[in-house]
Specification:
This protein is mainly alpha-helical. It has 12 helices and no strands. The protein starts with a helix and ends in an 18-residue tail after the last helix.
Length: about 280
Amino acid sequence: MTLLLSAALAFVVVEMSVTYLVARRLRNFGIVDVVWSLGFGPIAALFYLVAPRPSASPPAPLASPALVLLLMVTAWSLRLGWHLLVRVKAHHPAEDVRYAQLRAEWGAQVGPRMYRFFLFQGAVQILLSLPFAWVCLDPSPRGAPFQLGVTGVMGMALWLVGIAGESVADRQLSRFRACPDNRGKVCNQGLWGWSRHPNYFFEWLVWVGYAVFASGSVWGWTGWLSPALMLHFLLNVTGIPMTEALSVRSKGDAYRLYQQTTSAFFPRPPRKLPSTTSP
């Protein structure tokens, strides 16, 4: 495990240092979101390549849970990274409002503070990648199908639901924003009528899938730190709080009404407000 973590630490330091230098040159710190998303694929590949293999009767490549998980992580990482790259490129040279706000708040200290923030993002990458490490280190086969066992199959199912839901939510929001008549309005269509942040919910579900997948491995239960940490960041730190504050600022009462009728995170039917009209 020490070897895997050392390799991951070296990777994220180089990854985030280069990203910081490029971001400063482009004057757009928002590109760190793209790199952060794309970085999980290489981390999972590092774990897969560096982890020791059992010398006796190794499983066939297609039956390896570690390889299956590597493909899952890579597919998710490329999808999310590409989606964010398209969004950042469409707004460049304008910077994402979250990073523009940090730039304004930190003032003359934006350089060193932002670099530390980038390194912190890299540390979070390693913590979130714990399920990948435990699967790669587990020498025991899981059984059919493809030696994944019950937890592996359940993890893949949750992962698929998360990927599909997040993709649908992203497409629905993009389609809504592309219509000129919707400028300044709140998207409450499709999945966005059941949750104010369905993309965040399904993103979290992907990480639940990884944790379930790893649960059948030795020490795999510690992989539940990943969805717990992701949920904390989404609900309390850089996810919903910052996004909602910006939405209220830009859309005002329309978004406040949306907050009253629609769940913040977990999808559910919209709430009906009591009628204020007199009989």
